[in-house]
Amino acid sequence: MQISASMVKELREKTGVGMMACKKALTEADGKLDEAEKILRKRGEATAAKKAGRAAGEGLIHSYIHTGSKVGVLLEVNCETDFTARNEDFKGMVKDIAMHIAAASPRYVSREDVPEEIVAAEREIFSDQAKKTGKPENVIEKIVDGKIDKYYSEICLLEQPFVKDPDKSVQDLVTERISRIGENMKVARFTRYVLGDS
């Protein structure tokens, strides 16, 4: 069965789980929303999403300099307690995310951080491209939505396929740790430095 972006969005809104995990669960459940939600709950991912509402006032600021010293990353990831901030599992995740940022060059943490005017400009470009195909307006709208989702997955850290395991997104990685450690965690911000860029 074809899993549509709207099905993934609906499951994501219902559970708070990352888009790639939602798509995988919907595929396993043959597109049945309730079944996909059960799959996510069994994996503990829906439980992790519920923890996402809790305050995360502790955490780490991590610096990573890539081999050759031409790319560097400064990253802040928050959690609920100092105990978790010192946990090796949490520290490992933070280091992995910093390495991912160095390799994948995201521009924003999440789609909510992308300025509206940038999204509007991209939407206009994609719409113009789609209109040239001669397809009906309702199909053009779906094409544009699909291209915008792909655009987000290229520029937003949490939606990018994780470099160490492209079958899951960076958000899926964070969600797994939330589920395993039992605390809310949040990528707060990052800066990526490239030698010679100003």
Largest sheet: 3 strands, antiparallel
Distance between the termini: 48 Å
- Return the CATH architecture of the largest domain: 2-Layer Sandwich
What share of the residues lie within helices? 40-55%
Order of helices and strands: HHHHEEHHHHEEHE
Q: Which topology of the largest domain does CATH recognise?
A: Tetrahydropterin Synthase, Chain A
CATH class of the largest domain: Alpha Beta
How large, in whole angstroms, is the Cα Rg?
18 Å
Describe the fold and architecture:
The protein is an alpha+beta fold and 198 residues long. The chain has three domains: 1-51, Helicase, Ruva Protein, domain 3, CATH 1.10.8.10; 55-114 and 156-198, Tetrahydropterin Synthase, Chain A, CATH 3.30.479; 115-153, GTP Cyclohydrolase I, Chain A, domain 1. 54% of the residues lie in helices and 17% in strands. The protein has nine helices and five strands; from the N terminus they run ααααββααααββαβ. Strands 1-2-5 form a three-stranded antiparallel β-sheet. Strands 3-4 form a two-stranded antiparallel ribbon. Helix 1 (5-15) packs across helix 3 (33-42) and helix 6 (88-104) packs antiparallel against helix 9.
Annotate the secondary structure layout.
Blueprint lengths: L4 H11 L3 H10 L4 H10 L2 H7 L6 E8 L5 E9 L2 H4 L2 H17 L11 H16 L5 H19 L5 E2 L2 E5 H12 L3 E10 L4
Antiparallel strand pairs: 1-2, 2-5, 3-4
